[in-house]
Amino acid sequence: MAAQLFFNGLVTGLLLALPALALTLVFGVLKFANFAVGAMLTLGAYAAWVANVQLGMPLTASAAVAAVTVAGAGLLADQLAFEKLRLRGSISLLVASMGVSLVIENVCRFFFGNASRGFDVALSRPIRWEGLRINQEQITIAITVAVCLVAVDVLLRFTPLGRAMRAVADNASLAAVRGVERRAIARLTWALVGALLGLAGVLAGLDRSIDPLIGWNYQIAIFAAAILGGLGSPIGAVLGALTIGVAEEMSALVIPTNYRQVVSFAVILALLLFRANGLLGAKAARK
Amino acid sequence: MIAYLVTIAILVCVAALVGLALNLQWGQAGLVNFGVVGFVAIGAYATALLAPQIGWLPAMLVAGAASAILSAGLALLSIRLEENYLAIVTIGFGEVVRLVILNEGWLTNGALGIPDIPRPFAALGRTIGGDTVFIVFALALVAVVFVLLEAMARSPFGRVLRAIRDDATVTAALGKNVFALRVRAFAVGGAVMGIAGALHAFYLTYIDPSQFTPIVTAYAFMAVIAGGRGSNVGLLIGACSIMALLEGTRFLKDFVTVIDGVQLSALRLGLIGAGIVALLILRPQGLAPEPKRRAADLLPTEKGGV
């Protein structure tokens, strides 16, 4: 029982890793907490659903559609909203991202209604291994996330774009002096973040049914994961996501499952009180 | 038709109260509160549970006090946090309140909600029309809260809150206890949100968790941004225009047949989101900007007249 919950928690954690990474990247490069992560994830799930169910494309191709769609939405939001508010400070950006979140969520609701949807995938028997029940979806989630994480890691560490992103995150003015254009880096960050959230949406849609609140339901856990790892730290976000995933699933042993989200909230609160910079250290969280 | 206008007017009153509270917390003191709906829900539930037992006025006061205490508690834990973190803690608080209300059925009746909440002046309402009495009550409540908050904004307390918002370090250097002042501002805002929840419960006479979604929070932010952060008069204008516009669109349902109810509500909520972004970009100072109060205005003039 405990082993199964731990395993489920690791998979949930991997699922959270992509949006947590997306949140932390935006925070690092653009310096605000993007409250639209959940809504962008929802958009990804619906984009893939349209491609998969309505257009009959295979799920892999649908995932690509989702990634491109949400990347486009991220770029559009940046162009229309965030870019114009960049100099107004993080409160304005924060509140604006809440507005963007409402717009995206309700665009989905407008076109698809409140009904629950699911991908057109063949049902498959769970694999039994060492007493664990492993679903096909869980394997898909684990492999996809692992590939994405390696790709983002390589991108951040070894490519000129990754170097530029890290430079802007460290010190935007200094980066500008060295010829790194913040505008271009912001756009590329949104494209990358959008792609990650699009894929996360597809994986979330595999894990549970798709409705307009699918992303919102992950929101607190995503923030808990990113804060746990230290906002702005990509590796921290992944470790934080795994921890939160396991903590949420394992909490079923001691508290009613209805209160799973409270675990994330408690983690956030405890962490901010006792170790405000996150496990791996980040920008000061206190005023 | 008249009943419909009354409904809009009272929803505007509730929104105005919530907005006034957020305007104190965010507009004047600079503290982001994304958990507005949680405090409104606490006020509404406290009222619903207590009003049948102890009468409407004590219930409403307890609602305000309960919300204020929880506000102060949350503020004590989190108000030192940088705004991005404060935002997430408050949003998490709102979600926790929702979960508790949904799951603690022994107290809140879970998803079924609480019916038969008594209205204030119900006896008087039976003789001269319940809606008339209630609308006067709602308007009076807004007026009282407005006068109190406006007096507070002009008082030394309001002044120091704005000083903290504009530069906390300088204010602290002047010997002000920034932490305690922020907690107090948050608590007062919480009290007003609790009272707004009470008004909501009184009007509907039935509450359930589905009435308390993050949309309440979004409405409040929209009203504050539209009115002008820090300006109470602006807030009232903002709350009235936004709510009248948004609730007015409910009318469309009777005329527009192309889109259904879900789509209409999606459209309305999407417009709030777009409105928040557009106002932030195009008119950050709001419809009625915060009045600039100069030191000279506070001093007595020498020749009796400016």
From TrEMBL, chain A:
The record lists the membrane-crossing segments as: 6-27, 32-51, 57-77, 89-112, 139-156, 188-206, 218-242, 262-282
The UniProt record lists the keyword Transport: yes
Q: What is this protein called?
A: Branched-chain amino acid ABC transporter permease
Q: Which UniProt keywords apply?
A: Amino-acid transport, Cell inner membrane, Cell membrane, Membrane, Transmembrane, Transmembrane helix, Transport
Subcellular localization(s) per the UniProt record = Cell membrane
Signal sequence annotation: none
Protein's organism: Methylopila turkensis
Membrane topology note: Multi-pass membrane protein
- Is Transport a UniProt keyword of this protein? yes
Q: Please give the Pfam families that the UniProt record associates with this protein.
A: BPD_transp_2
Q: Name one GO biological process term.
A: L-alanine transport
One GO cellular-component annotation of the UniProt record comes to: plasma membrane
> Which portions of this protein are annotated as coiled-coil regions?
none
UniProtKB/TrEMBL annotation, chain B:
Which UniProt keyword terms apply here?
Cell membrane, Membrane, Transmembrane, Transmembrane helix
Which residue windows are transmembrane per the record? 6-24, 31-50, 56-77, 84-102, 133-153, 185-206, 218-246, 258-282
Report the subcellular localization: Cell membrane
> Which Gene Ontology MF annotations are present?
branched-chain amino acid transmembrane transporter activity
* CC terms in the record's Gene Ontology section: plasma membrane
Q: How does it sit in the membrane?
A: Multi-pass membrane protein
On whether Oxidoreductase is a keyword of this UniProt record, the answer is no
Task: Name the source's superkingdom.
Answer: Bacteria
Pfam family name, one: BPD_transp_2
**Where does it mainly reside?**
membrane
Any keyword Phosphoprotein? no
Query: Can you say what this protein is called?
Result: Branched-chain amino acid ABC transporter permease
Q: What is the lineage of its organism?
A: Bacteria, Pseudomonadati, Pseudomonadota, Alphaproteobacteria, Hyphomicrobiales
